[in-house]
């Protein structure tokens, strides 16, 4: 069944909605009431000229009659059918989607909404998987958590398995557990804050590294203020930067500022430019 096979149903629904009689609409469209009755029961096809006349008589766009409000449902249900598992239960009857939407619009809307939700979740999972593989901040944070957990577990095992431990060493082990537990707490809190910020950020699932790169690109990949003898503090350089939306990105940006400042002190741009002007840039 083609999508426009339900045009007659839409004509009838619109006519009843605005309260116009069948005979009056037939007169406006230049056809007989009997022929309009056949159209409304989907027993006659509607050509382009007649579709335009009916749309004008009903006060709607032609697309509203040709495709209807359920057009998006068709696409959603087709996507759901395409992703259906091949488990031997039988393939969905895609050729009867229009009929299904017409007869059960509520169920059709629910299935289409569920399909859209599944698609969004799959996209999120793929993006997070990609991030875990390539995001340096996330990798470092996970490594810090695992390292702290391993350290706490090792120290706790020593205390649990050794019956006699020198008081000085026992105190040292207790202090180590305390310090490692604080490190674990801070690392876990930073990781959770990073993930929460990433999900709520208007930039979507971009990583902190990508935020820093966007910030540097906006600055032309050169922080000229760091070349001055009295360079400003890193906090002032990143303050209000719209690209640094997450706390993790700001932390990475501060680390970059510190490295860039150290490089500027070790090799001032003015001195480098003077040498290059004298010897050129050709390494040969």
Key descriptive features of the protein:
284 residues; mainly alpha; 434 Repressor (Amino-terminal Domain); 4 domains; 14 helices; 70% helix; elongated
Q: How does this structure look, described?
A:
The protein is mostly helical. The protein has four domains: 3-72, 434 Repressor (Amino-terminal Domain) (Orthogonal Bundle), CATH 1.10.260; 104-131; 135-200; 208-279, no CATH class. The protein has helices at residues 7-18, 22-29, 33-40, 48-58, 62-66, 71-82, 97-103, 105-134, 136-161, 167-200, 208-218, 234-238, 247-266, 269-279. The longest helix is centred in the middle third of the chain and has 34 residues, at 167-200. It is elongated. 20% of the residues are buried. The mean pLDDT is 80.
Mind sketching the topology for me?
Blueprint: H1 7-18, H2 22-29, H3 33-40, H4 48-58, H5 62-66, H6 71-82, H7 97-103, H8 105-134, H9 136-161, H10 167-200, H11 208-218, H12 234-238, H13 247-266, H14 269-279
Helix pairs in contact: 2-3, 2-4, 6-8, 7-8, 9-10, 11-13
**Unreliably modeled segments:** none
Count of the domains:
4
Number of helices: 14
Please summarize the sheet with the most strands.
Answer: none
Distance between the termini: 74 Å
Order of helices and strands: HHHHHHHHHHHHHH
Instruction: Kindly provide the radius of gyration, computed on alpha-carbon positions and rounded to a whole number of angstroms.
Output: 34 Å
């Amino acid at each position: 069944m083609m999508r426009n096979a339900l045009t007659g149903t839409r004509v009838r629904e619109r006519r009843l909605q605005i309260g116009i009689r069948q005979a009056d609409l037939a007169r406006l469209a230049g056809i007989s009431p009997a022929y309009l009755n056949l159209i409304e029961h989907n027993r006659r096809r509607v050509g382009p000229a007649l579709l335009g006349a009916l749309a004008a008589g009903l006060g709607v766009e032609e697309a509203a009659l040709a495709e209807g409000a359920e057009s998006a449902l068709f696409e959603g249900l087709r996507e759901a059918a395409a992703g259906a598992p091949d488990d031997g239960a039988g393939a969905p009857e895609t050729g009867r989607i229009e009929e299904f939407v017409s007869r059960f619009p509520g169920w059709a809307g629910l299935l289409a909404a569920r399909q859209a939700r599944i698609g969004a979740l799959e996209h999120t999972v793929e993006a997070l998987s990609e991030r875990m593989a390539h995001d340096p901040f996330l990798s470092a944070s996970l490594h810090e958590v695992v390292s702290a957990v391993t350290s706490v577990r090792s120290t706790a095992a020593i205390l649990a398995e050794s019956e006699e431990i020198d008081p000085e060493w026992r105190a040292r082990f207790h202090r180590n557990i305390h310090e490692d537990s604080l490190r674990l707490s801070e690392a876990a809190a930073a990781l959770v804050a990073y993930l929460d910020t990433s999900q709520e950020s208007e930039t979507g699932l971009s990583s902190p590294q990508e935020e820093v790169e966007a910030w540097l690109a906006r600055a032309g990949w050169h922080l000229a203020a760091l070349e001055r003898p009295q360079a400003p503090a890193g906090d002032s350089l990143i303050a209000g930067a719209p690209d640094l939306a997450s706390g993790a990105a700001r932390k990475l940006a501060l680390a970059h500022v510190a490295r860039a400042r150290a490089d500027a002190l070790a090799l001032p741009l003015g001195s480098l430019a003077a040498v290059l002007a004298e010897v050129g840039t050709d390494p040969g």
